[in-house]
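Exam revision sheet. Question 4 asks you to relate a sequence to its structure. Input first:
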Amino acid sequence: MTSFLAWLDSLFEKKQPFDPRNHVCWYFLAYMLGDMLYFTDEEDEELMKIDNHDPEVLRELIREFVVPHYRYYPPESQKKIKDTLTYYLATDSPKLDRSFAAFHINLDSPGKLFYTLVWQALYGTDGPDPINPADYV
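Answer key, structure tokens:
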């Protein structure tokens, strides 16, 4: 009985205050890639044949797979994606290169180049403004 009462009390405990800092998650770097996460073996083979260091080729991939997928996210998820891109691009994080390998996407492109092009496609500027990293968690 006491465990039930403890559980019931926990429902009414004072919650931690909301952290007003911008929240980032490097998984968003991969999840925003949409259908690129689910390529078939044949599509992977085609992807390996392209020059994925050429910005024009990457822009075409982004227009075809990333931009349409991004539009389906609700505004709060789009904000988290933007905050994540802002943080990782502004701090030149090495995590930009990890999402391709972590999710078995056969892109050999530098993450900074790819996600800078994603930023340009989604937000229409060359990159995020300088930030204070302490404003992000």
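Marking note for examiners. The two ends are 39 Å apart (CA to CA).
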